[in-house]
Amino acid sequence: MRLIKLQRRSILNRIFGTQPQTPQQLTSVQMLNGYNNRISNYSGDLYDNATIRSVVDTIARYFAKMQMVHRLKGTTVNDSLNTLLTLRPNPDMSPYTFLYKVATCYEMDNNGYIYVERDDLGNAVALWPFSYSQAELKENKYGDLYLEFTFSTGKKVVASTDDVIILRRNIYKDDFFSETNNKPLYPVVNLLHTISQGIINAVRSSAVIRGIYKVIGSLQPNDIKEKRDNFKDQFFDTQNNGGIIVMDSKGDYTPIDSKPVLVDDKNSKLVNEQVYTYFGVNENIVKGTYTEDEFTAFYEGILEPLALQISEEMNAKLFSQREIGFGNEVVFVGDKLSYMSMTSKVNMINAVKDLGVLTKGTIADILNVERPEDADTILQSLNYIDTSIANQYQLQTQKDKLSGVTQSAEGGDSQNEEQNTIT
After folding, report:
1. Whether pTM exceeds 0.85
2. Bridge partners of 156?
3. What are the φ and ψ backbone dihedral angles of 82, each rounded to 5 degrees?
4. How far, CA to CA in Å, does 351 sit from each of 243, 345, 361, 367, 376?
5. pLDDT tens digits for 296-308?
6. What is the mean pLDDT of the chain?
7. Which residues contact 300 (CB under 8 A, 6 or more apart)?
8. What integer pLDDT is reported at residue 65 of this predicted model?
9. Using CB atoms within 10 A of its CB, is residue 52 exposed (0-12), middle (13-18) or buried (19+)?
10. Is the confidence at residue 128, as pLDDT, over 80?
11. d(CA 52, CA 278)
């Protein structure tokens, strides 16, 4: 057995270790509305709330099921970038984990960042999503923008904005950073916490005092305590299956009906609805009891916009202008059809199967059945033809008609001439 000597290496160096030398002279960027060129991230407490975590987890889980694909003019490219996107975005994450963290950071912070690790030729070799404590926008003397990230350990790292995929939501007053979730969500979280504590305290108070045992006569404090303990052990013990209390004339017990005052379901549901509405989901989506229309709205309103934003940022940061001009792009493919009902799937297949856009394998995938041997075969109706063929057919038909008219006209003149000659 060969022993391997392990060396300690921080995650910070693992992610940003290959970044190029950062210019020494960096200054703060002046914004249009002032010099506030930084943002602090204090959303960790929000994620501790059960309602918020369940909502964010729901969005992240469904978004992580999407697939990242490198395409050239609509055709998948089997190159190193496509392998990176579909197999291992970075050495520590699968595509599912990668997209899950991207979505979670985006929803919690409203600012999501993915560092692009490159080789010596500038090609992307890893994509690293990360959280941070503070981000500050800076520039060098040439006007190139850089982001300085500060982490909870106090360590800092500087990266060019060309090497950072930047995601933003709720961008308003700031020229570069998004608004945080702190102001709109903290009052709701505090209210949810108050409701939870109120329920706990009400349950506790209802279990503290069950009744009053009045002892006839004067007793010493120790005797009163002894009688209370004896009464409690005798009649409130779990072994008192009969539930009947027998007392003598030396004591009088008066039960207290303590009913805890709890927040009704209507008000509690109203508070939860504020969280659902803020993140653009509903209770059925979170619980997984959604209808087809509800999931379609969730997909088009939440998942698709995030996929579009990441796709656009990846195109700008992973490809050159020349490569984009040739048709290179990163596309997010969502298995939206799997959430359709069987009736909707069959209707959709019947509507487009004659157009020649679905293979037998695709139809089998939609119906969630085993693929046939000729899975790549495309079925198409003979009632549909290519546009160019249709144009040629119409032109040829028009030529034939014109030719027929010409021949008819020429034949008529010859006959008249022949009749004139005989006469």
Report:
1. no
2. 150
3. -65, -35
4. 70, 10, 17, 15, 19
5. 899 999 999 999 9
6. 79
7. none
8. 93
9. buried
10. yes
11. 10
Q: Which residue has the higher pLDDT, 240 or 364?
A: 364
Name the least confident of 34-43, 69-78, 209-218, 305-314: 209-218
Q: Are strands 145-150 and 134-139 parallel, antiparallel or unpaired?
A: antiparallel
Kindly state the tokens that stand for 18.
């290959």
Tokens of 115: 């560092």
Q: Which two tokens stand for residue 192?
A: 């949810």
pLDDT at 380 over 50: yes
Confidence of residue 253 (pLDDT cuts 50, 70, 90): low
Question: Cα–Cα distance between 318 and 313 in angstroms, integer?
Answer: 8
Tell the residue number behind the tokens 């059925």, with chain if given. Answer: 284
Which of 101, 54, 100 is CA-nearest to residue 279?
54
Quote the CA–CA distance of 29 and 150 in Å, as a whole number: 17
Residue recorded with tokens 């300690």: 8
Give the chain's count of helices (H) and strands (E).
15, 15
Q: How far is it, in rounded angstroms, from Cα 38 to Cα 176?
A: 9
**Mean pLDDT score, 8-34:** 71
Q: How far apart are CA 162 and CA 20, in angstroms?
A: 12
Rg value, the chain, Cα: 36
Between CA 22 and CA 237 the distance in angstroms is 73
List, for residues 29-57, the tens digit of each pLDDT value.
Answer: 888 876 578 888 765 578 888 899 999 99
DSSP assignment string, 231-288? HHHHHSSTT-TT------TTEEEEE---------HHHHHHHHHHHHHHHT--HHHHHT
Indicate the SS3 state at residue 70.
strand
Measured distance CA(182)–CA(384) in Å, rounded: 57
Q: What distance in Å separates the CA atoms of residue 278 and residue 88, rounded to the nearest whole number?
A: 32
Rounded to 5 degrees, φ, ψ at 274 are: -65, -40
Of 331, 362, 306, which is closest to residue 71 (Cα–Cα)?
Answer: 331
Q: What percent of the chain has pLDDT over 90?
A: 37
* Cα 185 from Cα 56, distance rounded (Å): 13
What secondary structure letter does DSSP report for 178? P
* Cβ neighbours for 128, distance < 8 A, ≥ 6 positions apart: 15, 90, 114, 115, 117
Q: Does 126 score more than 90 pLDDT?
A: yes
